């Protein structure tokens, strides 16, 4: 008997590797275990046998009495997950003659089967749809994931709620309408910067960080408004363009975080608790999944109470911050996830939080502050572009009316600065000033003579590393863009250097 073929995928990072599902039904009757899956399948894939058997029974079909062999090729590629249920079932139906084998070979399929033959949602539909489109095939997926798959563009999509509905569709007895792409309704209820009273210097630093995509560290006592400021950063950032939205949605799809298959234009804002493990933050685990740094791709990763995170976990972020990707090394493979995020962190100056206030500070001051801040490694701090002191807010400040300038006004300036950067880096592999380096950095951010002299002097006085030197230039370039200035001048350099004083003190 001939072998029936249908295709599915195995995930390696955000890459969807093609898997050929081959189904063969033997000519001789066998007793006992007559259904075998081979091809380096894990336990979840092995359990597909029982789910497929029950699903076929639910639609009135019995398993063949002959020996059934399912091969997942290439056989040396690890296969994991429940999304192999549907392609195995369809390959079996094609081998049994229920569905046309030549027709099924034109499709890539994924989906989990319930015991009553319903097709339930799985993660990774969007990257699978894109892979199917590139291979020139159609896609068969769960109905609940159809809206997600529709974003892949020019690809035939059959989104089915059940196995019987798919069989009827393929036989012409029922028509499954193609799904439509869905855009998430991003509400406009983001917190406004007008809510923050006082803290003008912190607001200025927040604006610069938003305009250039720079990493930001806020240091101040409890109740100073650090978390409030961080929560208002997403409202200052421009929405994702179509390409960026698709890029982050592929990561969200793999993590199973696309609600109803709808893609959002809002930049992600992730705020993990300080008890997060390395696998949760960077990615990994038994079944490699993207971590918080990848889920914050093209958005903001907010780490509150920064020194409370495990030092090893924090230091593991150094490479993603620098390269823009998280690499998960395993014995059998290296998995890469995109991780071009903007780090925003907040911390108290010491454990009690009142280091600068003698009336409230604990008896161990100032040593408690030194010990507390020593939890952060120098190399990690060196990767922070902007560090600011956020002072306590007085009762007089709280009694003041709301400031005239809020999120809308600041977001407009940020959008203008981002537009300048988009035009400048149109033909470059970078999006913002925070990413520029090497010859490109020298070309676009070289200061004037007075600015260069100030930077050289400050580098010696503050003992800036080469990384600190270049990060100061990037921040200066952003400050110039906010002003609409063509070149980087001495005042821009001076302001950029003021944001590294706190880091240099460490």
Description:
With 506 residues, the protein is an alpha/beta fold. The protein has 24 helices and 18 strands. Helix 8 packs parallel to helix 19, helix 19 (407-424) packs across helix 22 (466-483) and helix 21 (449-461) packs parallel to helix 23 (490-498). It starts with a strand and ends with a helix. The model has no long low-confidence stretch (mean pLDDT 90).
Class from secondary-structure proportions: alpha/beta
What would CATH call the homologous superfamily of the largest domain?
P-loop containing nucleotide triphosphate hydrolases
The major pleated sheet works out as: 5 strands, parallel
- Low-confidence blocks of residues: none
CATH topology of the largest domain: Rossmann fold
Tell me the helix content: 25-40%
Question: DSSP helix count?
Answer: 24
- Please report which band the strand proportion falls in: under 5%, 5-15%, 15-25%, 25-35%, 35-45% or over 45%: 15-25%
**What's the number of structural domains?**
2
Q: Please, what is the average pLDDT?
A: 90
Extended strand count:
18
- In whole angstroms, the N-to-C terminal distance is 73 Å
General form: elongated
Radius of gyration: 28 Å
CATH class of the largest domain: Alpha Beta
The CATH architecture of the largest domain can be given as 3-Layer(aba) Sandwich
The main sheet orders its strands as 11-14-17-10-18
């Amino acid at each position: 008997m001939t072998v029936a073929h249908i295709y599915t995928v195995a995930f390696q990072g955000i890459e969807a590797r093609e898997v050929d599902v081959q189904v063969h039904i033997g000519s001789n009757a066998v007793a006992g275990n007559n259904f075998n899956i081979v091809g380096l399948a894990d336990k979840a894939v092995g359990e597909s046998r029982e789910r497929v058997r029950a699903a076929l029974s639910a639609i009135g079909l019995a398993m063949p009495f002959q020996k059934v062999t399912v091969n997942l090729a290439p056989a040396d590629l690890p296969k994991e997950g429940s999304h192999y249920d549907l392609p195995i079932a369809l390959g079996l139906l094609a081998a049994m003659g229920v569905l046309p084998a030549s027709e099924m070979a034109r499709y890539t399929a994924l989906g989990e089967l319930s015991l009553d033959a319903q097709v339930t949602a799985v993660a990774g539909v969007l990257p699978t749809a894109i892979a199917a489109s590139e291979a020139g095939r159609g896609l068969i997926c769960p109905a609940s994931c159809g809206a997600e798959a529709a974003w892949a563009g020019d690809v035939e999509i059959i989104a089915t709620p059940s196995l019987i509905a798919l069989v009827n569709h393929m036989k012409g007895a029922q028509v499954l309408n193609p799904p439509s792409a869905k855009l998430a309704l991003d509400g406009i209820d983001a917190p406004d910067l007008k809510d923050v009273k006082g803290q003008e210097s912190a607001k200025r630093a927040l604006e610069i960080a938003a305009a250039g995509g720079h990493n930001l560290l806020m240091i101040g006592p409890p109740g100073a408004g650090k978390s409030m400021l961080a929560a208002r950063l997403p409202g200052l950032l421009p929405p994702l363009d179509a390409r960026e939205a698709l890029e982050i949605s592929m990561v969200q799809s793999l993590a199973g975080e696309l609600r109803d298959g709808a893609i959002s234009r809002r930049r992600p804002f992730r705020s993990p608790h300080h008890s997060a493990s390395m696998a949760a933050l960077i990615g990994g685990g038994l079944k490699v999944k993207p971590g918080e740094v990848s889920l914050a791709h093209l958005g903001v990763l907010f780490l509150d109470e920064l020194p409370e995170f495990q030092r090893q976990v924090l230091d593991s972020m150094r490479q993603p911050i620098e390269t823009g990707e998280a690499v998960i090394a395993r014995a059998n493979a290296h998995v890469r996830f995109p991780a071009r995020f903007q780090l925003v962190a907040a911390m108290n100056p010491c454990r009690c939080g009142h280091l600068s206030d003698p009336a409230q500070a604990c008896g161990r001051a100032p040593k408690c502050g030194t010990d507390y801040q020593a939890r952060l490694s120098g190399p990690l701090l060196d990767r922070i572009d902007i560090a600011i002191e956020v002072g306590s807010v007085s009762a007089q400040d709280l009694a003041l009316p709301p400031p005239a300038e809020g999120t809308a006004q600041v977001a407009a300036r940020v959008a203008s600065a981002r537009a300048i950067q988009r035009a400048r880096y149109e033909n470059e592999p970078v999006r913002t000033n925070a990413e520029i380096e090497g010859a490109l950095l020298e070309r676009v951010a070289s200061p004037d003579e007075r600015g260069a002299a100030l930077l050289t002097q400050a580098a010696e006085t503050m003992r800036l590393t080469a990384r600190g030197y270049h990060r100061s230039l990037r921040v200066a370039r952003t400050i110039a863009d906010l002003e609409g200035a063509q070149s980087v001048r001495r005042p821009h350099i001076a302001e950029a250097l003021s944001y590294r004083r706190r880091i240099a003190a460490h």
